[in-house]
Design brief:
heterodimer; A: alpha/beta; 12 helices; 14% strand; B: alpha/beta; Urease, subunit C, domain 1; TIM Barrel; eight-stranded mixed β-sheet; six-stranded parallel β-sheet; 14 helices; 29% helix; globular
């Protein structure tokens, strides 16, 4: 499928109907397709020597990261700057929150500085939604607790669509710590909306209860779980959750749920491997697999991240323009 | 206080104690119920009487609420005994039992005495303290249960905290039993419920909320039932909220154990889906459960397995609620919404009116040995006059509690309190 040119996509001027970007569940397939088309255009732009547009000229983007994340924060920062926005990075962790200021107080304070786009990451589920009720600009959820990380799902969909040309009908196995993963939740919603078959793979201690009611197939045996899959998406497992808490040890986890060549052989021959990063090499994924550019989409995901976020920002900003 | 006697005429008397639900009238004199006319016309009322025409409204015993929190002493910005008393009066609640987890904890007779003295000064509704079962409600060493009972505590409990140590729980039960003191206990396995903000299941999983499985309630309840069997004590299960715990309760009662249970109006009315997009006013402890659990609770209320409903009034100011869901304080105010919310089951035709009223009057009054909770000659004139069919739109900002954390905000209910009397005094009149 030939990606349409950026000007063509922008020329369609599809009005994104929402003020905020909080959850994949808010979106519909038409909007997602439109965002992916737009992102495709930005991928091309980002590969040029001159990468700058002025779609967000005059607008202020504020990165509000209550949890540290160099990767997501710089991705949003680059996305904003390439579209011509003024970008400010705030890490309230270091400053006011520790002095007893609540999330709402912080939001109200920042709101008085009139950010047009507020990118929020917070350790509590629902925090971005709460913030969106209190500010006048657009809120973009860059990860809220164990709930959602919708731009990650968008960039993952973009990576898959570019690798395979389609998403509907793909068999995707999401493996690892599903219980604590906002990436998994957003991806399940996104992939189901786009018609992929989703499987979840992990030990029962790392699966949400009643996960069978999510419309997915759940597996506790990784070889069976990834058998015949087109995409194997690994999730990050935080080290402190091993050592007998939710998994007995790192080596046991890697033995049964780490992705290596041997297990990957059960997937489809053309399988592509994904990981939202940062990776724990040798814990959830073998370096041999992660670094094999013939199967790994992990580097692509990082590149697609900037483009997907540019698409989200541009769509929301168009809406802001219309409001004025 | 020898005010004029009051005649309440043209009312629908609902008195679970005598089983009467029908037209009638009632005369109040010297703070007690002087005459009850069931069905019969009182005829010519003689003497100097203040006659109040009920226009067909329900006249029932004032409500007895066994589980109320205020912030006094220690957190008066949340709620004072006075603001809670006004809210109670406006809700038709004439007796409340305040929980001991105040600051300081009611683990000392002097704190119980403070509550009772404050209540006398306020002159609104009856306030009874519950004493702590263990010192500091920390679950480690027994509180002075005998002295607390002497000081007026109607039961002992560690409120929201389960007594984890089975040895301590055993001793509390057997020691309290020797004084005839009722022990109330929250059944929640502490390890399964640590850090939980929601009930485990599909909803919590999708929302990414830390959750506790319903069996955490059952596990602790089963332990408690075994200890009741061992000690022969009386136990009040503080808020059953799950279908699986109801099964345990039913078996325990079938074995003849002296165990009874409450549930909260919140768990009868809402389920976890009401949390929706992280509405922290629906964050409760125990958390809201699934619809199957809610239906099982309504069945248990109808069958009498759970004979008592509480408001579980727990004020939390906006600054404790307007936070991300897992950081927000649990609890909901409920004194003013208890009666109209409960009446929903009458309007739905699910539970007869007289049985519903029993769960908030006679049943709790009998349990803690109050003479209130009935329309009987000589009983305290604690009464509520309620227009059963009047629509009410709950506006949290207009509630009389100092904290406005009501999950009923914006709800349309049916049943408006017209007047509340305590010891024959009119303490609330709707304008």
């Amino acid at each position: 499928m030939q990606a349409p040119g950026l000007n063509e996509v922008l020329g369609r001027n599809f009005p994104f109907p929402r003020r905020h970007f909080l959850s994949v569940l808010d979106l519909n397939p038409v909007e997602v397709a439109s965002l992916l088309d737009l992102a495709d255009g930005f991928v091309a732009l980002n590969r040029q020597a001159s990468k700058k547009l002025d779609l967000l000229k005059g607008l202020t983007l504020m990165n509000l990261f209550f949890e540290n994340s160099t990767r997501t924060q710089s991705s949003f920062e680059l996305a904003g700057k390439r579209l011509g926005a003024d970008v400010v990075n705030m890490s309230p962790r270091a400053s006011s929150i520790s002095k007893g200021e609540t999330l709402i107080d912080t939001a109200v304070t920042l709101n008085a500085m009139h950010p047009d786009l507020l990118v929020v990451r917070h350790g509590s589920s629902g925090a971005a939604s709460l913030l969106s009720q209190k500010v006048s600009g657009s809120v973009i959820n860059a990860g809220d607790g164990q709930h959602e990380h919708p731009t990650q799902a968008l960039l993952d969909a973009l990576s898959m669509r570019r690798a395979f040309g389609y998403i509907a009908g793909l068999k995707v196995a999401i493996c690892g710590d599903v219980l604590h993963s906002r990436v998994a939740r957003s991806n399940v919603a996104m992939l189901q909306m786009l018609g992929a078959q989703v499987r979840l793979v992990g030990p029962p201690t790392l699966m949400p209860s009643q996960v069978d009611r999510w419309g997915v197939e759940a597996f506790h045996d990784m070889r069976k779980g990834i058998a015949g899959c087109d995409v194997v998406m690994m999730l990050r497992l935080q080290m402190e959750r091993m050592d007998g808490v939710l998994a007995p040890s790192q080596r046991e986890y890697f033995r049964f749920f780490g992705l290596d060549r041997e297990k990957l052989a059960f997937a489809a021959p053309h399988v592509r491997v994904m990981h939202p990063g940062p990776m724990n090499r040798g814990v959830e994924i073998d370096s041999d697999v992660a670094d094999d550019l013939a199967v790994s989409l992990i580097q692509d995901q990082v590149e697609m991240g900037v483009a997907a976020r540019m698409a989200v920002l541009a769509s929301l900003a168009a809406r802001l323009d219309n409001d004025r | 206080m020898s005010a004029r006697p009051i005649a309440l005429t043209n009312v629908r008397l609902v008195d679970p104690a005598s089983g009467w639900d029908g037209p009638g009238a009632l005369i109040v004199r010297d703070g007690v119920i002087a005459e009850v006319f069931q069905g019969s016309d009182p005829g010519a009322l003689s003497g100097d009487l203040q006659v109040i025409d009920g226009v067909g409204a329900m006249l029932a015993p004032g409500l007895v609420d066994l589980r109320v929190k205020t912030g006094e002493p220690g957190a008066e910005t949340k709620e004072t005994l006075k603001s809670a008393a006004f809210a109670a009066a406006a809700g038709g609640v004439t007796s409340i039992v305040v929980q001991p987890d105040t600051d300081p904890v009611i683990d000392d007779p002097s704190v119980a005495d403070f509550i009772l003295r404050r209540t006398r000064d306020i002159e609104m509704v009856h306030v009874y303290p519950a004493g702590a079962a263990t010192k500091g409600a920390r679950g480690e060493r027994m509180a002075e249960i005998g002295l607390l009972a002497e000081a007026g505590c109607v039961y002992v409990t560690d409120a929201d905290r389960s007594i984890v140590d089975s040895k301590v729980m055993r001793r509390v039960l057997s020691y309290a039993a020797s004084f005839g003191v009722l022990v109330a206990h929250r059944p929640a396995d502490p390890w399964l419920s640590a850090g939980a903000a929601a009930s485990e299941g599909e909803f919590a999983g999708r929302r990414g909320l830390p959750s506790t499985p319903p069996i955490a309630e059952k596990i602790m309840l089963e332990r408690d039932l075994a200890l009741v069997e061992l000690t022969g004590a009386r136990l009040l299960v503080d808020q059953v909220t799950t279908a699986c715990a109801l099964e345990s309760l039913e078996r325990g009662r079938a074995r003849g154990l002296a165990v009874t249970a409450t549930t909260s109006i919140n768990h009868l009315t809402f389920n976890e889906l009401d949390i929706g997009d992280y509405r922290t006013f629906c964050k409760l402890d125990p958390p809201l459960r699934g619809e199957d659990d809610r239906q099982a609770l309504i069945e248990a209320l109808a069958s009498g397995l759970v004979p008592i409903v509480v408001s579980a009034h727990a004020p939390a100011p906006a600054e404790d609620k307007r936070l991300p869901y897992d950081e927000a304080a649990p609890g909901a105010v409920g004194l003013q919404t208890l009666l109209p919310a409960l009446l929903a089951f009458h309007h739905d035709g699910r539970i007869p009116l007289i049985d519903l009223i029993r769960t908030v009057t006679q049943a709790p009054a009998d349990l803690i040995g109050l003479s209130a909770g009935r329309l009987a000659k000589g009983a305290p004139a604690d009464l509520v006059l309620c227009d059963l069919n009047a629509p009410v739109l709950i506006d949290a900002d207009k509630l009389l509690s100092k904290s406005k954390n009501s999950p009923f905000d914006g709800r349309r209910l049916q049943g408006a309190v017209r007047m509340t009397l305590v010891d024959g005094r009119v303490v609330y009149t709707a304008d």
